[in-house]
């Protein structure tokens, strides 16, 4: 039986969620993927963007379609310090100003002014490039370990999921899938019954604290990453989630996952890993490689789910119906996301 009868909840729409997400910072690239002179495309919340970095390091995020004939500027390049459209060579600066229209016999200030790109807020932090589509007071949460030079900080390769971003968040918070979805990595002997969880609500989200028993894998020697540890999972709404693993010997790891919504049914997971100084365990590159394998197993599970996005309102196959103990954290996320949406989110 549902512990959350649908009848008492206001019905929320995907449009409400989309508009709220547009007011939040979302990652669009690993910073290293867009070096000076780099140009790329990214679809964020159904909006196709061009992301470019100029020689001085400044970033541009703008609608991808050239104001002239709509060619994708993501196929352009930086030429003489300006973003150049591949079709007729119009050029733009980091502010989106159109500086040059080669076909004009004489410069025409009016035409240049009308040709300004539609730009968005863009910034770099934690090794990611972030874009906010609509101005708001939303800020990025502080994760000191990511900016502490004593810690080893590694960027994971972004992974595309043919699944909605809330499917990915739920997966990240799911406590009973390890023995099944991760039998090849984390171990078949993982206990699908959840350990004692302590959930704490915060103004901007929630966290879970739990002891994690050692996992046994039949495929490889149980290593540090599968050994007993304390786990704190923190979700900063809507989709910035971290896991802090504290091992008995004092070593720690902090992982961040942000499933950046491409469309209503797809997302790209940006993630990174901070490792405490002198970590006694597998070398950092091996930890990333292991995490990629685990994440790919999660991707496969998310892509199996119907519908591709978790319905906002309680439903069978979604959330709030057939709730089991291992779903507690995912249910907490859905309830808190509703609270965040109905409270006006980041307006
Ligand atoms: S379409 Fe971009 S310059 Fe013509
Ligand atoms: Fe998983």
Automatic annotation (TrEMBL):
<keyword id="KW-0408">Iron</keyword>
<dbReference type="InterPro" id="IPR036922">
    <property type="entry name" value="Rieske_2Fe-2S_sf"/>
</dbReference>
<protein>
    <submittedName>
        <fullName>Aromatic ring-hydroxylating dioxygenase subunit alpha</fullName>
    </submittedName>
</protein>
<keyword id="KW-0560">Oxidoreductase</keyword>
<dbReference type="Pfam" id="PF00355">
    <property type="entry name" value="Rieske"/>
</dbReference>
<keyword id="KW-0411">Iron-sulfur</keyword>
<dbReference type="InterPro" id="IPR017941">
    <property type="entry name" value="Rieske_2Fe-2S"/>
</dbReference>
<dbReference type="GO" id="GO:0046872">
    <property type="term" value="F:metal ion binding"/>
</dbReference>
<dbReference type="InterPro" id="IPR044043">
    <property type="entry name" value="VanA_C_cat"/>
</dbReference>
<dbReference type="InterPro" id="IPR050584">
    <property type="entry name" value="Cholesterol_7-desaturase"/>
</dbReference>
<keyword id="KW-0479">Metal-binding</keyword>
<feature type="domain" description="Rieske">
    <location>
        <begin position="25"/>
        <end position="131"/>
    </location>
</feature>
<dbReference type="GO" id="GO:0051213">
    <property type="term" value="F:dioxygenase activity"/>
</dbReference>
<keyword id="KW-0223">Dioxygenase</keyword>
<dbReference type="Pfam" id="PF19112">
    <property type="entry name" value="VanA_C"/>
</dbReference>
<keyword id="KW-0001">2Fe-2S</keyword>
<dbReference type="GO" id="GO:0051537">
    <property type="term" value="F:2 iron, 2 sulfur cluster binding"/>
</dbReference>
